[in-house]
Write a structure and sequence with these properties.
alpha+beta; six-stranded antiparallel beta sheet; 8 strands; about 40% helix; two-stranded antiparallel ribbon; homodimer; DNA-binding; globular
DNA sequence: GCAAAAAGTTAGGCGATACTAACTTATTTG
DNA sequence: CAAATAAGTTAGTATCGCCTAACTTTTTGC
C-alpha cells in the first residue's frame, strides 16, 4: 500500500527515502555544495557498485534533484542542494544533541546520527537544537546549516598543508572513523585547540605539531583529516 | 550491496527490518502477548491488504518468529515475543523521553516514536531511559518492558466497563489518536487521576464521570479507551 | 593520435514488501 | 446441514534499491 508508505514519511518534507537522502549527502560532500560528483566517487562513498549509482542517479535526475549527463557525472540542482542541506542539518544537530544532552562520546555520534537523520522529524530536530542552545557546529566542528539552508562554506587548510612555523586553531576533524577520533582525542587534537607546525619530515614523513604544551608527531594521512583556521602568528613569522 | 544493508542495521539485534518490527508489534498487541492474531486484524492494524499479511506471515514463520497454520492465524513464538517487546521498549522509552526531556506534547510522541523506534540503537534507548530516571510507563501510562523482556501485563478495566458508583485511578489511555489525547487532556482524564462513575445512560449512552471536582459526560467509545485501576471505595459501596 | 586503462552504462536478476483479482476454506445462519 | 458470508490464500505484478557481467565511452600515456 503506497498510502502507508506515504504516511510513514515525514510531514513537511517531500518524502525522500533514506537511500535518496544518502545519495544527496554524498554528492553534496563530494561537490562541496556546488561542484560535480563522479559516479565512482559516489559509489565508493556509499559502498555501492558503480552500476547501482548509475541507476539511482538517473532517477534522481528525473525527480529534478540533480543534473546528470551520461558519462559526465552529476551536480545537485538547487532543489537537490536544499534537500542535502536539510539532511545535513538533521545529522549535525542530532550529533550535537547526542553529545551534549546524552553524554555520547564523540566517536560514536556519527554512526547513531546516520540512522536517526532519516527518521527524525523537523520538530524533533528543532527541539533538540533549542534544548542545547542552537549550536553552530557539531561535535567534530562541522557547521550546521540553518533552517533556511545557509551554511558556512569556508574552506580551511588541513594540518597537512600548513607550513612549518604556521599556527592555527583546530576547527574541524573528519567524523566517520571512531578509532581515529579516539586517537585524536587522546592527542588533544580537538576543535578549539591551538596548534603549531614545528617540523615536517620529507617524503611524506611525519609532521611534528605542538598542541598545548605537548609536542607530537603524526602521519600526513591523519594530519589531512584535521582542518585548521590560521592564526596570525604573534611572533610575526607567517602561515 | 547486502553488506551495506547489514551495516545499516543495529549492532546487537538480529537486524529486523522496520516492517517486520511493525508486524511483530501488531501481533503482540492483538494477542496481548500470548494469544493468537487473525490475518485480517493484523492487516487492519497495519493498514495493509490481507493478502500482504499472508505473505509476510509465512516469511516470519520461516524465520521462527511466529507459529502459523494456514487459515488459522498466527501466534508469536518466544523469539518473536522477545523481539516485539524489544521494539515496544524502544517505542515507549522514546515516547517518555520526548515528553520529559524535549517537552513534546503527549498527543505527538506516539507518531514520532513510531519512526524512531526502528532507528534508535540500544545504547541510545538506554541512555534516554537513564537520563529521565528509568521510567516504568510511557506518557500514556503503558508499561515499559525491561531490558530482559519482562512487562507488567496486568489487565485493567476500561471506564466503559465500570459499574455506576465505582471509583478508580486512571492508569492508561490509548495512545494513537492525537485529537482524542488532546480532548482527554482537556477533560483532565490523564494517568494518575481519580475518577468515579456517577451514571450511565442506557442504550450505549453517555457515561457521567467525576474527575477531581468536575463532573463530565463522555461517550462509551471514548470511555473504552481509558483504563482504570479500581480503588476500594472509601464509602464502602463496591466497584 | 591511437591503444590501453579507467570510468561509466546497460542488461538481466534478486529480495523485500506491497498491491489486485481470483480462488479456497471456515464460519454463520436460516 | 446447506447456502451464504466472512476470512484467508494463491497467483501474478509492481517498485525500490541493490547486484554481476558485459559492453561503451572517455581519458591517459606513449
Amino acid at each position: 500500500m503506497s498510502a502507508a508508505r506515504e504516511e510513514s514519511r515525514l510531514a513537511g518534507r517531500e518524502a525522500l527515502t533514506a537511500p535518496v537522502e544518502d545519495y544527496l549527502k554524498a554528492i553534496y560532500a563530494i561537490g562541496k555544495g556546488t561542484g560535480a560528483a563522479a559516479t565512482n566517487e559516489i559509489a565508493q562513498r556509499l559502498a555501492l557498485a558503480p552500476a547501482s549509482v548509475s541507476g539511482m542517479v538517473r532517477r534522481l535526475a528525473e525527480q529534478g534533484l540533480l543534473a546528470y549527463e551520461r558519462y559526465h557525472g552529476v551536480k545537485l540542482t538547487e532543489s537537490g542542494r536544499r534537500a542535502a542541506l536539510r539532511t545535513l542539518r538533521r545529522h549535525r544537530i542530532i550529533e550535537a544533541y547526542l553529545a551534549e544532552a546524552l553524554g555520547y562520546p564523540w566517536d560514536r555520534v556519527h554512526q547513531e546520527a546516520e540512522r536517526l537523520e532519516h527518521a527524525a522529524s523537523d520538530e524533533l530536530v528543532d527541539r533538540m537544537a533549542a534544548t542545547i542552545g542552537e549550536p553552530e557546529v557539531d561535535p567534530h566542528g562541522a557547521p550546521i546549516p540553518t533552517r533556511d539552508g545557509a551554511v558556512d562554506e569556508t574552506e580551511y587548510r588541513s594540518l597537512a598543508d600548513m607550513n612549518v612555523g604556521a599556527a592555527g586553531s583546530v576547527v574541524r576533524v573528519a567524523d566517520e572513523d571512531p578509532e581515529m577520533l579516539r586517537y585524536l582525542a587522546e592527542l588533544a587534537i580537538v576543535p578549539g585547540k591551538r596548534v603549531t607546525v614545528k617540523a615536517r619530515a620529507p617524503y611524506d614523513g611525519p609532521i611534528t605539531v605542538s598542541v598545548g604544551r605537548q609536542e607530537l608527531s603524526i602521519g600526513p594521512a591523519l594530519a589531512a583529516q584535521v582542518l585548521v583556521a590560521p592564526i596570525a602568528d604573534r611572533a610575526g613569522k607567517r602561515g
